[in-house]
């Protein structure tokens, strides 16, 4: 087999693995639609709501009660998220909140949920 063909196959395989790792579901993560997310926030007293967007995005509006811990800082600030609470995550579209859930899961967090579609799917009130 030609070396160039082999290299192309390897590059395509690595790219496919990268795409899969970014878009694949997170085992144990609850994917909640807006109404489900609202209901759980209202009824679960043992929770923490985390906005994983960057501060400049949060300025446009956030869900009341959310703590801003950007995905880019999650590993350094993980100590701010108490163990033993249900963690509700959201971002702009739902992609970064899944990535944040992976980071939290690797660090022993188990009660994780995220807002499907992110704040773009949110139809509730936003604080500024």
TrEMBL record:
Domain Rhodanese: 43-128
Pfam families tied to this protein: Rhodanese (PF00581)
Domain of life the protein comes from: Bacteria
InterPro entries hit by this protein: GlpE_sulfurtransferase, Rhodanese-like_dom, Rhodanese-like_dom_sf
Keyword terms, alphabetized: Membrane, Transmembrane, Transmembrane helix
TM segment ranges: 6-23
Matching PANTHER family: FAD-DEPENDENT OXIDOREDUCTASE (PTHR43031), RHODANESE-RELATED SULFURTRANSFERASES (PTHR43031:SF18)
Name by which UniProt lists this protein: Rhodanese-like domain-containing protein
């Amino acid at each position: 087999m030609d070396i160039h063909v082999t290299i192309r196959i390897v590059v395509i395989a690595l790219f496919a693995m990268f795409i899969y790792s970014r878009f694949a579901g997170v085992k144990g993560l609850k994917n909640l639609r807006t109404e489900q997310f609202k209901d759980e926030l209202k009824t679960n007293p043992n929770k923490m709501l985390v906005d994983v967007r960057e501060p400049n995005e949060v300025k446009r509006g956030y869900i009341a009660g959310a703590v801003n811990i950007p995905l880019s800082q999650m590993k350094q600030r993980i100590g701010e998220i108490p163990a033993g609470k249900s963690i509700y995550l959201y971002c702009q579209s739902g992609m970064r909140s899944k990535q944040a859930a992976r980071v939290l899961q690797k660090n022993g967090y188990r009660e994780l949920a995220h807002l499907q579609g992110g704040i773009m799917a949110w139809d509730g009130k936003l604080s500024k």
